[in-house]
Amino acid sequence: MAVLVTGGAGYIGSHTAVALHEAGRRGVILDDLSNASRAAVDAVRGLTTPDLAFVEGDAADVGLVGEAIDRYEVDEVVHFAASKSVAESVELPLAYFRNNLGSLLGVLAAMEDRGIRRLVFSSSCTVYGEPDVVPVTEASPIGAVNPYGWTKLHGEQVLDAVAAAGGLDVMLLRYFNPIGAHPSGVIGEDPTGIPTNLAALLMQVALGRRDRLQVFGGDYGTVDGSAVRDYLHVVDLAEAHLAALDALTTRTGATAVNLGTGRGHTVLELVRLAEEVVGHPIAHEVVARRPGDAGRIWADPSLATEVLGWTAERDLRTMLEDHWRWCESHPDGFADARTDPPRAPRLGGAPGS
Ligand code: WQD
Questions:
Q1: C-alpha dihedral over 102, 107, 110, 115, to 10 degrees?
Q2: What is the 3-state secondary structure (H, E, C) of 33-96?
Q3: Please, are residues 9 and 16 in contact by the beta-carbon 8 Å criterion?
Q4: Among 56-60, 275-279, 287-291, which is the least confidently predicted range?
Q5: Closest ligand 1 atom to Cα of 148
Q6: Considering only 101-105, 157-161, 185-189, 340-344, which range has the smallest mean pLDDT?
Q7: Is the CB–ligand 1 distance for residue 177 below 6 Å?
Q8: Alpha carbon distance 339, 43 (integer Å)
Q9: Element (H or E) spanning 3, and its range?
Q10: Of the listed 11, 148, 220, 231, which one is catalytic?
Q11: Using one digit for the tens of pLDDT, what is the confidence trace for 34-73?
């Protein structure tokens, strides 16, 4: 039997495909490569097995997903395939709803047609919006504040309803801030176009690809005024997906679980530690807050330990060391080995339209 990993050529998906192999499980990658590279699939094969199955296409295509399920005897699904930039979702809300909800509905329809019940869904702490109380538990108020977060929130609502009707057992994994890379340095985050997330931009400055990092906000009520997030190692996150699949062998219905370390760090703390890791200063300046940012959010991960038997193991220094190893050896991400034509920036409309 096999695990279908939609979006499996992406940052977290590729690390999950490797973790599945390391656990002796068979993964099948399905990805339309709209935000990932074929070279990533090759890199994953290098870390797992050359015959790792890869299906190129859109997870919204029910027929394609169904064919993959039949061909590879899939009996479980991990669904990553989605667009994930908060900033881009504000500019292209319709494209985000079409892609993120369309891909989920395509996967669910194909699963239902074949009586496949077990699903792990890539959700996000952005469903909590700007929490009044931290740390955040799964019972904290829900209230996304941007289209990306709404696609995750609505995705969870769809999954809650399908699970309540009896057709699905699903883990709704609410990621906090994944950073880092596989310790081999062979796979890692490969942002398309200009990144918006902190770790990618920080490393571009460290590489000399960008003049300086803008620290968004120095007037939050935190230890140094910069915003607090719960950063977790992408390999810890990948391993949590395996634990979620295992938990679904006994746990029915829909279960939301926070995936974080339970420790918050400010942006400036991350910058200072990154300077130690890369061995030189990283130019940065504190500027105005970024609209829509929460000042402080970190997880109470106790339910993940209780339900999944999972706890994040890798510390912030390890996250940055592993992230730097990937970036230093792949300054252009997978572009060096990329066999795909250069990706044109998405100009609007549904991805792939
Ligand atoms: C982190 C902190 C910024 C860039 C992300 C994903 C979202 C979800 C949660 C998975 C913030 C600050 C950033 C910069 C900065 N993950 N920052 N200068 O906004 O927490 O959300 O993680 O679903 O998908 O978007 O992550 O990395 O953009 O920002 O000061 O140039 O770094 O203000 O405090 P965010 P981020």
A1: -140
A2: CCCCCHHHHHHHHHHCCCCCEEEECCCCCHHHHHHHHHHHCEEEEEECCCCCCHHHHHHCHHHH
A3: no
A4: 287-291
A5: 24
A6: 340-344
A7: yes
A8: 12
A9: strand 2-6
A10: 148
A11: 999 999 999 999 999 999 999 999 999 999 999 999 999 9
pLDDT in tens, 165-221: 999 999 999 999 999 999 999 999 998 778 889 999 999 999 999 999 999 999 999
Distance CA 88, CA 343 (A): 16
User: In the prediction, which pLDDT does 194 show?
Assistant: 81
CB atoms near residue 75 (< 10 Å)? 16
- Band (pLDDT 50/70/90 cuts) for residue 111 is very high
Q: What is the residue type of 160?
A: D
Judge whether 10 and 32 are in contact, CB under 8 Å.
no
Catalytic residue flag (residue 231): no
Task: Flag whether the pTM goes above 0.90.
Answer: yes
Sequence letter at residue 226 = S
Burial track 322-345 (b if 16+ CB lie within 10 A, e otherwise): bbbbbbeebeebbeeebeeeeeee
Closest C-alpha residue for ligand 1 atom 11: 227
DSSP state of 299: B
Structure tokens at 207: 């590489």
For residue 281, whether the previous peptide bond is cis, meaning omega lies within 30 degrees of 0, is no
Structure tokens belonging to residue 221:
């009520």
Q: How far apart are CA 159 and CA 289, in angstroms?
A: 34
The 3-state DSSP class for residue 150 equals helix
For the chain, the structural domain boundaries read 2-348
Residue type, 324: W
When the candidates are 3.40.50.720, 3.30.720.120, 3.40.30.10, 1.10.10.10, the CATH number that belongs to 2-348 is 3.40.50.720
pLDDT at 317 over 90: yes
Would the CB of 324 count as within 6 Å of ligand 1? no
Q: How far apart are CA 122 and CA 259, in angstroms?
A: 11
The pLDDT assigned to 336 comes to: 58
Residue 200 CA to ligand 1 center (angstroms) comes to: 10
